[in-house]
Amino acid sequence: MTAADVLWLDPDTVQLRQPKSSHWEAPFLFLLFGRDRAILFDTGATRDERVFPLRGTVDHLIETWLRKHPARVSRPYELVVAHTHAHGDHIAGDALLAARQGAVVVGTTPAEVIAFFGFPSWPDAVVPFDLGGRVIDVIGAPGHEPSAVVFYDAVTRILFTGDTVCPGNLYVRDRAQFAQTIDRLIRFRDATKPRIKHVLGAHVEMSKKPGVDYPPGTVDQPDEAPLALPPSILDEVREALTVVDKHGRPKRRVVRDRFIVVDDPR
Predict the structure, then answer these.
(1) Which residues pair with 170 in a beta bridge?
(2) pTM for the predicted model, two decimal places
(3) β-strand 78-82 against 103-105: which pairing, if any?
(4) Biggest alpha carbon distance in the chain?
């Protein structure tokens, strides 16, 4: 069994990473606590608790937080399991948490995401989701995957972007939707006060050497880039989407220092 890499970003926010030894994708997950409920962004790339003890890790983290905040908690304490998008390396562990008492697992189709969070219009609306004294903004973000969303937490001032923006390969499955999503995130960023501090995606695939990534399947990444990106990265992604080839068509692969845009319309 390989334990998760756990980092408390603050007393109410946890960053987890599935170890490379359990799956080469090594996605990052995030657990945020509020008075009434916690929310988990993504469940990783395996459903085998023996390989990656997601359920045990989440249970321990919740128990730890509840012991420290007994007076702040509404009981029963709920866990909402949400997703940045529906690809397998982000939803594989859903079954491990679905049977947990008090857990609510959000569906993975666009219709289920829209219904759960109450989007009045998709994907243009930004909808609040209250954890109890901590409101998370949910932003529609299709383009990499049809049901993708981005989460913003005003407490930490972190924009959680999944695979839409991360230090890695940004796979664009629907170019028009992806560009609209980046435009939407830029508008949100520019309207948000105080300003967003960090953009945290779900993978690190870039090395510290500008423009150099680790090939898919790489397990050992000794010189990987940091996960956190500045909010200005959104402008860089948007610019990369405008690059064309000699025929005037969008270039299929655009390399930048901290990410690579890959046209992947599967």
Answers:
(1) 261
(2) 0.96
(3) parallel
(4) 64
Residue with tokens 């937080």: 65
**15 and 7 Cβ atoms separated by less than 8 Å:** yes
Q: What is the pLDDT of residues 57-77, one digit of tens each?
A: 999 999 999 999 887 777 789
Quick one: tokens of 89?
């390396």
For the chain, domains (ranges, CATH) are 5-263 (3.60.15.10)
Please list the helix, strand and coil fractions of the chain in percent, rounded to the nearest 5, in that order. Answer: 20, 25, 50
Cis peptide bond upstream of 76, omega within 30: yes
Summarised one tens digit per residue, pLDDT across range 172-191 is 999 999 999 999 999 999 99
How far apart are the C-alpha atoms of 150 and 139, rounded to whole Å? 5
- Contact criterion met (CB below 8 Å) for 90 and 162: yes
Enumerate the β-bridge partners of residue 136: 129, 153
